[in-house]
Amino acid sequence: MSELLKLSYQIDGDNFSSAGEASANVKKKLRQLGLDNEIIRRVAIAMYEGEINMVIHANGGTAEVTVSPKKIEILLSDSGPGIENVELAMQEGYSTAPDNVHALGFGAGMGLPNMKKYTDEMRIESTIGVGTTVYMMVNIK
Ligand SMILES: Nc1ncnc2c1ncn2[C@@H]1O[C@H](COP(=O)(O)OP(=O)(O)O)[C@@H](O)[C@H]1O
Ligand SMILES: [Mg+2]
Fold this sequence. Notes:
The chain has 141 residues and is an alpha+beta fold. 35% of the residues lie in helices and 28% in strands.
């Protein structure tokens, strides 16, 4: 399918001051394309949560966003520690975030459940010691 837009970002690990910049930029670009506000909101929330996860849990990674006529796809890849039990990690409130991360207001354990909630498709592939990829897709009505 023809692409309208492809965006790539490098996400810094453990850098809380720049965390969220990539999803904010995606939001801006989607607005420029004139997409529906509700679609933009869902993509921005899902991507923000995935971006924060790479900062907190994986020492950063990359994000690729592809906009085509019928859908927006987000691919997040990191070379972090991996997720031992994806099913457990998907549960609301589950978090392995350390205290210093909680003190900054992150680590409520709602990121993955919200990524699932706000997208039409979400797939996680993770290997311990190798890394994690998260694929998310939002249909454009
Ligand atoms: N990219 C990732 N790499 C390694 N572990 C992750 C990653 N994303 C999520 N996790 C694990 O899944 C848990 C749940 O994630 P999430 O629902 O976003 O909660 P939170 O980030 O608030 O801890 C995290 O605490 C962490 O253990
Ligand atoms: Mg999270």
